[in-house]
Specification:
By secondary structure, the protein is of the alpha/beta class. The protein contains 15 helices and seven strands. A seven-stranded parallel sheet has the order 3-2-4-1-5-6-7, with helices on both faces. The radius of gyration is 22 Å and the shape is globular. The two termini are 41 Å apart. 35% of the residues are buried.
Amino acid sequence: MLNAVDQTLVNDLMGEPCLAQRRALAKIITLLESTRMDHRKRADELLNTVLPKTGKSFRLGISGVPGVGKSTLIETLGLYLIERGHRVAVLAIDPSSSLSGGSILGDKTRMEKLSVLDKAFIRPSPSSCTLGGVAEKTRESMLVAEAAGFDIVIVETVGVGQSEIAVAGMTDMFLLMQLPNAGDDLQAIKKGVVEIADLIVINKVDIDPDAAMRAQLFITSSLRLLGFQGNPDHASHDQEFWHPTVMTLSALEGNGIPELWEKILHFQKLQNANGQLQLRRKKQSGAWMWDRIDAGLKNAFENHPAVQALLPGLNAEVNQGSMAASVAARRLLEAMGHEFF
């Protein structure tokens, strides 16, 4: 049962687009990101209340190495979509320091034109050292943005490497950005983030068109190879299914943005027609549940009284080299009354 304050937040969130709605959206996401247990319980109630209003947007995940132009592409694409009547929410994840835990949260500053528009909402969040290039509460934030009526939700990841692919597990389409001179043909066929991308975009074609064309050829060839030896759906030539493609554009100059949106619309049409979009979301919901179970078990373990009593002594012994780390871990787990090893 929601209290009066949270009920007002829900009413504002699902009301007409206005300043009150944006404020409610920001406040609910802040609750979601809080680590306080009372905030967590309120956030859970809010999330369940707005859940029937979710699921109607298109979720686009954008990833790529630092400096590839993710923020520039999002702003240019966002402006293009708003001109065509869409409402765009951007969840930008910034890396947190492993030393201080702090984040600069500078992505909103990069999107100067998009951030001032009424039909856009940009929320930078710290990764809090969560692996995979996204923040821990990105999925929940995405649902709240959908409940507010944003029909396009874009998740921009931390600048990632080849194995950081969490955003693909929470969006409808995974777009990977590459630089024209990112590597040779051997680099292009390395597995990981490349083989799960739905669309690969070679950005900054305006700087070196020839290099961009070579990169497009390398990656297109690699996708064929990865398809035949990886995902069986990608190996098929059935036109009723989407097959990953590679395109070039210049986000800074806006060249290629209409073509990019046409490809995204074609992807959405195919995925809806063959049922893959619904299947993908069902799998993501199940994976999300287990992800939260893992996080909850870790939190319960860290806060267990018996674990907290043993931890300082065992940690000291491990640091001194008098006890193997695996033995210490087993003793801490046994302190909870479970035999995990």
